Amino acid sequence: MIKSIAIVGLGNMGGGMALNLVRGGFRVHAFDLSREACAKAKENGCEVFATVAEAVRGVDAVVTMLPNGGIIDSVYSNEVIGKAPTSALLLDCSTIDVATARHVANAARAAGYEMVDAPVSGGIAAASQGTLTFMVGGTKHAFQRAEAVLNAMGKAVIHAGESGAGQAAKICNNMLLGIHMIGTCEAFAMAERLGLDLHAFYDIASKASGQCWSMTSYCPVPGVGPHSPADNDFQGGFASALMLKDLKLALEAAETAGTSVPMGTRAKEIYEAFTAAGNGGLDFSAIIRTL
Ligand code: NAD
């Protein structure tokens, strides 16, 4: 049974996740390179350590929530594998490339650990409220062990398949999200030019075949549909820079898999230009400003 957990990476996402692990009754060891993030984790009931290796010593599970695959590879090879007990379950919740996820899981397995990739859907608010959705890659046994940990931080935990399958599901989903957000923005921009009342268009399209999540849960037009980042001048939400990161990962995976993704490629170009123009911090629905 998992009672103690080390969490590495206490940023926008990991900070809230650590708090929910504490609330879930786990003893939580924490580490981040940022002193500020560590101080906040301490206030939230975590025990803070000076290095990853010290934080993972003797724990039942390790959760990582870090920026990218290069950092994950280095943190696991240098500071987790061989430092945490082999009985500890390893869970990487970061969004990284499928190839690195598989490589790190293989290295962990070779050293005697069970590991899952468990990237999330849901942003900073879902991380702090404990309502993330986890897509999990790993063996059935590892998934079953992971459930208790992930349930403390999320509202849904889904087994996607073997190692890397969680990351594969995440980037396929987010590529689709980037594409249909741009499509939704195009449709609303054109509706406006054609003289349509945007509330009327929303009422029609949200009940017709153009309906999609970008429209009905996250409408990019201020004042239309449920409250969304568009109603807050595109602050908060899911940053365009993170959408670009996920689209790049999707294109890398498509290339490795030898599959053609023309719409994903175009979506990446559009978010690349938007981010290069200084808009990386704006919510990804702000792409409507370019149309
Ligand atoms: P963030 O930049 O806010 O946090 C990352 C944290 O990692 C920082 O506090 C940083 O100091 C720490 N860090 C970096 N290198 C480290 C190391 N070697 N050892 C210890 N700590 C280290 O990022 P975030 O928004 O929390 O995102 C984390 C992950 O979650 C990313 O992979 C991101 O793609 C994914 N994600 C983010 C969101 C979102 O809305 N922010 C949504 C879904 C998934």
Question: Which terms would index this structure?
Answer:
291 residues; Rossmann fold; N-(1-d-carboxylethyl)-l-norvaline Dehydrogenase, domain 2; six-stranded parallel beta sheet; globular; binds nicotinamide-adenine-dinucleotide
Describe this structure in words.
With 291 residues, the protein is of the alpha/beta class. It has two domains: 4-162, NAD(P)-binding Rossmann-like Domain (Rossmann fold); 168-290, Orthogonal Bundle (N-(1-d-carboxylethyl)-l-norvaline Dehydrogenase, domain 2), CATH 1.10.1040.10. The chain has helices spanning 14-23, 35-43, 52-56, 69-80, 98-110, 124-129, 140-151, 165-193, 198-205, 213-216, 240-257, 262-279; strands at 4-8, 27-31, 47-48, 61-64, 89-92, 114-117, 120-121, 132-137, 154-161. The mean pLDDT is 97. Nicotinamide-adenine-dinucleotide is lined by residues 8-14, 31-34, 37, 65-67, 71, 75, 94-95, 120, 123-124, 238, 242, 245. Nicotinamide-adenine-dinucleotide binds next to helix 4 and helix 11.
List strands and helices in order, with pairings.
Blueprint: E1 4-8, H1 14-23, E2 27-31, H2 35-43, E3 47-48, H3 52-56, E4 61-64, H4 69-80, E5 89-92, H5 98-110, E6 114-117, E7 120-121, H6 124-129, E8 132-137, H7 140-151, E9 154-161, H8 165-193, H9 198-205, H10 213-216, H11 240-257, H12 262-279
Parallel strand pairs: 1-2, 1-4, 2-3, 4-5, 5-6, 8-9
Antiparallel strand pairs: 7-8
Helix pairs in contact: 4-5, 8-11, 8-12, 11-12
The structure holds nicotinamide-adenine-dinucleotide (NAD).
